[in-house]
């Protein structure tokens, strides 16, 4: 469906919420609908971002000062936005991204305690204050999400468990931040309960995305 304007849609949520699986299913279905879909993730999306991802998420890696962690996340996002996201949206693609600045506000802000105003200022200064057109928030109680995530990491032998190793109250603060963001911008959020079986969550999110895209692309 050439000639349509692009859109930037982000999937957010705590660890174990199923973002990657829900995003992949949505991408497949929307491609079948005729949309030009690009999928990406943070940290990542560029070679520089993937290198920083390994540094930031490895359970066996460095223990970063919270300020350093914030700056590295922002640095990866600058590369991602400049080289991938903005060009794709400008070309009319629908970009589906696993995590974005909402996660920084939740993890480094809510979880670590860095002032949200500082995170937003960095985003304005270095990422051009570029925000998603829509955020899909997959909400799950942290204890259940962590059980799922730790099982996935063990099953796949993936060394990205640094945040999963943090205390439950950290993840409770992360969840509270995500829900507060959704409350502050209800028109830009689609909140879905991520606790039911995956197929049910995928179907619910896809229905919401199709309805949102129809309205968004019709109204411009």
UniProtKB/TrEMBL annotation:
Gene Ontology biological process terms, A to Z: dTDP biosynthetic process; dTTP biosynthetic process; dUDP biosynthetic process
GO cellular component, as recorded: cytosol
Keyword Transport attached: no
Signal sequence range: none
Keywords: ATP-binding, Kinase, Nucleotide biosynthesis, Nucleotide-binding, Transferase
UniProt xrefs under InterPro entries: P-loop_NTPase (IPR027417), Thymidylate_kin-like_dom (IPR039430), Thymidylate_kin_CS (IPR018095), Thymidylate_kinase (IPR018094)
Top-level enzyme category: transferase
Molecular function in Gene Ontology: ATP binding; dTMP kinase activity
Catalysed conversion reaction: dTMP + ATP = dTDP + ADP
Function: Phosphorylation of dTMP to form dTDP in both de novo and salvage pathways of dTTP synthesis.
Homology family: Belongs to the thymidylate kinase family.
Protein name, per record: Thymidylate kinase
Upper classification of the organism: Bacteria, Pseudomonadati, Pseudomonadota, Alphaproteobacteria, Acetobacterales
Gene: tmk
């Amino acid at each position: 469906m050439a000639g349509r304007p692009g859109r930037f849609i982000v999937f957010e949520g705590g660890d174990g919420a199923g973002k990657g699986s829900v995003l992949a299913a949505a991408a497949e279905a929307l491609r079948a609908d005729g949309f030009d879909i690009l999928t990406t993730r943070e940290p990542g999306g560029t070679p520089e971002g993937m290198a920083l991802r390994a540094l930031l998420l490895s359970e066996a890696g460095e223990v970063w000062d919270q300020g350093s962690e914030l700056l590295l996340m922002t640095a990866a996002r600058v590369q991602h936005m400049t080289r991938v996201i903005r060009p794709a949206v400008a070309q009319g693609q629908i970009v589906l991204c696993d995590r974005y600045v909402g996660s920084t506000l939740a993890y480094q802000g809510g979880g670590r305690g860095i002032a949200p105003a500082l995170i937003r200022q960095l985003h304005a200064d270095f990422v051009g204050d570029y925000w998603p057109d829509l955020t899909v928030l997959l909400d799950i109680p942290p204890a259940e999400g962590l059980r799922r995530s730790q099982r996935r990491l063990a099953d796949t032998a993936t060394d990205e468990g640094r945040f999963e190793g943090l205390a439950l109250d950290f993840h409770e603060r992360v969840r509270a931040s995500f829900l507060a963001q959704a409350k502050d911008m209800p028109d830009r959020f689609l909140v879905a309960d991520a606790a039911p079986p995956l197929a049910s969550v995928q179907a619910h999110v896809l229905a919401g995305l199709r309805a949102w895209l129809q309205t968004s692309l019709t109204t411009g």
